[in-house]
Amino acid sequence: MLGTRHGIVRSALLIAALAVPGLCEEADGTAAIDKKPASTKGFAGYYPVSTVTDHSMIDKDVLDIADLKSSWVEAKKIYENGKNSAKGTGLRNLKAFSSAFLDKSKQDEPMAKLGNAFWGRFDFGDALVSAALDGTDDAQFGNFNTGEMAKQEDVRMQMVKKGVAFTVVWLYALHEMESALDKYSKGKYDVASGAPYALDEAWVFYVGSIDDGTGSGQGPYSGAEKFAKKFGTYGYEMGTGGRSRVNAELLYQFTAMQRYLQTAGNDEVILQIAQ
Q1: Which string of b and e fits 221-244 if b means at least 16 CB within 10 Å?
Q2: Beta carbons of 215 and 221 less than 8 angstroms apart
Q3: b/e for 19-55, b at 16 or more Cβ within 10 A?
Q4: What element of type H or E holds 228?
Q5: Over pLDDT 90: what percentage of the chain?
Q6: 105-119 in b/e burial notation, b at 16+ Cβ within 10 A?
Q7: Using an 8 Å Cβ cutoff, are 146 and 167 in contact?
């Protein structure tokens, strides 16, 4: 059995050092983004073994919300109901990425516990984004109705964009990483629905469908690229156009983990990779 599930999450925690400080800051990539899936094979250097293309399309919801600018009602519809990411006969939606942590089965995950300890609620990502979308005052997340700065429409949209990408999606990607290790510990190695599938989900949520590997997309991966110079993590060649050490480390670990999750008896090496 796996001795701990925290190690792989420690690697992903590096993302927080890049993403969270940029939450209220305009990223240095405001030019129009092509909404077609990335033309390079795979997802920023990672090659899924399961079918997760539909999952990756969730980043198009983030982009569509941003494109609506101050059309808050329409933006909220996309956030709550989804638009681009098919799930069964329906659609995957961003709000559910955060509200999923209201499920007690997910509340023992390290990042869920940490977030709840700080904010006093498991769905803090949704609380932030919803307050900004609705333009309401929230004592914890901002006075988007009366605050001199927070009520400005461009500020509200920045909080929505960054809150969705760098809190809501990021945390759910971490959940899928936890799910991969949990499934492996239960002997679920099938690439279609077991541990490898969950790991593939984690990566495509992290990167999205648009990013070509350089940070050109709307997922947490882009934050690691855009803020790498500010945090001294720039300059690492990934072979994908990316230069962030955070993304380079994660790509290496995900690729190695993916291989070992497909067969039994790899608990020790998986634990070593995760740590």
Answers
A1: bbbbbbbbeebebbeeebebbbbb
A2: yes
A3: beebbeeebeeeeebeeebbeeeebbbbebebebebb
A4: none
A5: 80
A6: ebeebebbeebeeee
A7: no
Give the residue from 73, 66, 96, 92 showing the smallest Cα distance to 217: 66
Contact in structure between 272 and 266 (CB atoms under 8 Å): no
| Nearest in space to 252 (alpha carbons), one of 264, 237, 231 | 237
pTM: 0.87
DSSP-derived letter for residue 169 is I
- Reading the block at residue 94, the tokens are 């961003």
Per-residue pLDDT, 273:
80
pLDDT in tens, 19-75: 443 444 443 333 344 444 444 458 999 999 999 999 999 999 999 999 998 899 999
Q: In this structure, what token pair is assigned to residue 100?
A: 């999923």
